[in-house]
Structures are given as structure tokens and as C-alpha cells.
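Q: May I have one protein plus its fold?
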Amino acid sequence: MSERKRLTRIFKMHGLSIQASALDTLLDVVQREAEVGRNKADVNNVIFNIIDEIKDRRIQGGNGSGGRSSSVGNIVTSALLEDVVADFRRDAKDVSDEAVQLLDAFHMPRLDFDRMRKNFSLVQFGKEERTLYGEAVAKVDMFNQRYALIQQRILRQDIFQPKLVTNRLARSAQNNGGTHTITPVESLLGRSGRRFLLGMIVQVEEGKYYLEDHTAQVPLNFSEASLLTDGFVTENSVVLIEGEAIDGVLHVHNMGSPIVENRLDSIKAIGLQNTDIFNSIGSLSEYEKLREQELEHGEDGMFVVLSDVYLDSPAVIEKIERMLEGYSDFNPLPIFVFMGNFTSKPLSSASEGTKSMISYFEDLANVICKFPNVANEGRFVFIPGPNDPGITGVLPRGPIPNYFTAALRSKVKNVMLASNPCRMRFFTKEIVFFRDNLVSKMRRNCLIEPRQDSNGQLSSHAIKTVLDQGHLSPLPLSTSPIYWQHDHALRLYPFPDALICGDRVEQYYETYEECDAINPGPFSNGFNFVVYRPVGETSGSQTKSDVELCEVP
């Protein structure tokens, strides 16, 4: 029996009809496998693996995944077979390369919560009109969504879940510490005694703060307030309050940050499809396949992150060269993430300042090109700082303009100019990169001194604040302006797997509700950087990240 007839019969035995052009492709595969020394049994195993993959894709195609390589009925087309064979030929580097995806803040889908229907939806980029300078209603929607996302999270906590009370004894137990009820602000009128409220702190009049929810607002008196949680309390932050309304003023007894939940619990509540901001997971089966690839190849991935890389400093350039030399022999190479500021002082907008910035990036390109492997195979991500060229002062901010990096991009093959903040996907992991002076901003704008009995430093308070608030900048808009229609790009709900925030404070690393919070520290001061492995080690179906705080000697 000829090989062509044998292969046709094998496919028919599995309920498939293979086209002549696809059969030619399969014969080429069989011939190549034989040429590399595989025996007949091994070649047959390759054929059976291809058939199994085709069947899987037929099932997915039947569920609506479609695509170029989907099969029509039981017919195996040439396009389908070529795609399947290409997948089998991918090596670990190919898989790792495809696992990395960069998402710009201005192209990010928006997670929307409908308070009336109590459901989530993911509004894709391009499905709604977004501008940098929205109308007043966009500002209202921005704060409404911030509050609604935290409120639904709080109301799902056991302590605020209403319980059926069948007798007086059970009712008494409930009142003495079982569950609690969130009282709307408008319901305070005419009620006495302590109440629990959830609201946003707003400044309606200069120096006078109010608690506001979706129903009303009430003046606040902090004079006897006791802070029960770590973090900073600032204007525009959402807080849980235990207090009593007296003469139209809410006297605060106890105050704390909203209760948080880890990423997995949030995804269960929101739904997998509504959290797929990268549009990379079409179904649960695709997610499981991505998880399998993560377990098999994830340990190869590594991010080298630097912040405050002053390219106008000869010492910084020298240390970058030494660092690149140390990684030049790695296979695969790490992904290098450089966060601004990229100059020690803001450059003027005059021609001299522009020429200087162009020359600094060209100097960096020359250093990278000293290591041909790094220049050709390495991937570099550049995230602007507060003082770098471009539209500054408002978040999110766009990438460094191409004009300044033309020489760098012409000499280094893989350069990505990212927004601030930006997000990266590594298999199923989500990493948020953000460059801002968080600690100093929050310290200047806090309304109540953070807890002194906590063993955390100011950096720990800042990280817990942004994660508790589910937002990178829960600050007054006068301090940290935001494009209203792009506020969702600053949200941290669900929690990312890692938040890497470049701040002008000492290096730190801590884990909060299974989220890695990392600051690489300023490279310009001490030549510090961080090495982050999203999949540092695997154990069964579980993965654990690895963080190394480093310094260039």
C-alpha cells in the first residue's frame, strides 16, 4: 500500500477526510521525520498527535472560535494542517515570545459594572468614543465606577451578607458582631446610634471634607477618628466608616480601607471573559492550554526592570553596559524594562533640549550594540517618567515620542515604547508597570497620619493604599490630574499578579493578597534594579514568582 493511501485510510478511521493539498503537506512532514532518523512507530505517533490536535480544533470551531485554520465539517484543509504542524514545530523560545503581550493604556478595554443589573461587561477599545478631554458627565462616570466597583466587592464579604434571623436570641447574636449593614448616607437623617457607611471622601468646600456615596453626602468630623488599617487616607479615597450622625455631621469613631480580595476571587465574581483585557483567552479550554504552556515554559521568562535611568549621566551609561554584559549570554534573554525619568533634570522644549535627548538615546543604542546578541534578540520596553518628553502632568501619559528614539529603534531590533502605566501579559500572568512618585504624593495629601503601630514603612502604606483602593492614583485631581475617559487604565481590579512601581524611594518587595508589589529603586542612585520571574518555580499545577533585588557593582 502506498504511503498516500495509508495516510488517507488513517484519517478516515478517525472520521476525517483530508484534502489532496493537505495530504501533500502531511507527506512532507512524514518524509522529514524519517530523514532525522525517527522509526516508523515514532512517525505514527506524530501523525496521531496531529489528528488529535485537529479534532480539538474542530470542537473549538464548533463552539464558535472559527478562524483561518478551523475545519469545515470533517474536511481537513491545507491551511488547518499547516497551522497544526507549525504549532508542533515551535520551540520553547517561540512559545515564550508569543506569551508576552504589551497593552497600551489608551487601548485598554474598560471593565464596567452596572449597579442596577449587578453585572459586569468588558467594553472593548473602539466600541465607544474616548477623548482626552471629555465632557463633565465623564468625570461623574469616573467616580461612579470607582465607587461601584469597591461597593460590590464589599457587599460580597461575609461580614456584610444579611443572614436569616429566626428568633430573638439569633437576632441579638447578629447585632453583637455577626454581620453588619452598610447604611446609605441619605438614610442617616433621623437615625441615632453608630452606623457603618461606605463612601468617598470629597472636599466640597475648602478645608471641609464630606463623605459621599451614590445617594447623598454628609460633613465629616475626624477629631476622634481611629484608623484601623494600614495605608494613607486621602481625598477621593473610598473608606469604611463607623460613626454617628449628630446635628447633621458624621462623627467618625473608626475608619479603615475597603476589604480586599485576591485576583482569583475577583475573577470568579467578574467572569473569565470580562477580565480578558488582552483578548488572548477565547474560552476556558484556551485558558487551560495557556496554563499548560506556562507550567512547561514559564520558568524561562525573566524581566530586568530599571527606574530613573539618567542617560545624561556617564556613570549610569557605564553601569548599563556592565549590566548588559552580564546578561548577554543568557538564553533566552530577559526582557529589559527601562522606566524614566531618562534625564536628571527636565529638558527645555527648545531645540537644544530636543537635540540632547536624541543624543542620549543614541548613546544608549551604541552601548546596546556592543552586544550584538542583545541588540538583535533582546526586547526593550521604555516607560516615560514624569519629566520625560511628551504631554506630561496628566495620567495616563503617552509613550515617548518616536522622534526622540529614532536612532535607538534603527539600531536595536525590538524596542517597545509604552505608555505610563502599561500592562504586560506573560502567559496567564498580568504585570502592571507604573512610574510615579507615589510615596511623596500620598504623604503630602494624607488627611490622617497612617498607623504608627504598623511595622510597615511609608512605601508599604502607599502600596496598600493603591491596592485597597483598586486604583493607581486615589488622590485629588489637583495633585494628580487624570484623563476622565481613560481612568480605567489606572484601575487595579482585579489585582494584577505583579505591580512594579518605579518610585524615588529605596527598593522594596512585598506580597499583598497574592500580588507582588515591587519597586526597583532609582538606578541613578545606587545603580539598583530588580529581576522579576513571573514563574520562578512550579509545583504540580501551582506556580510561584521569584523576585531578586539587585545592584550593579
The CA atoms of residues 100 and 338 lie 17 Å apart.
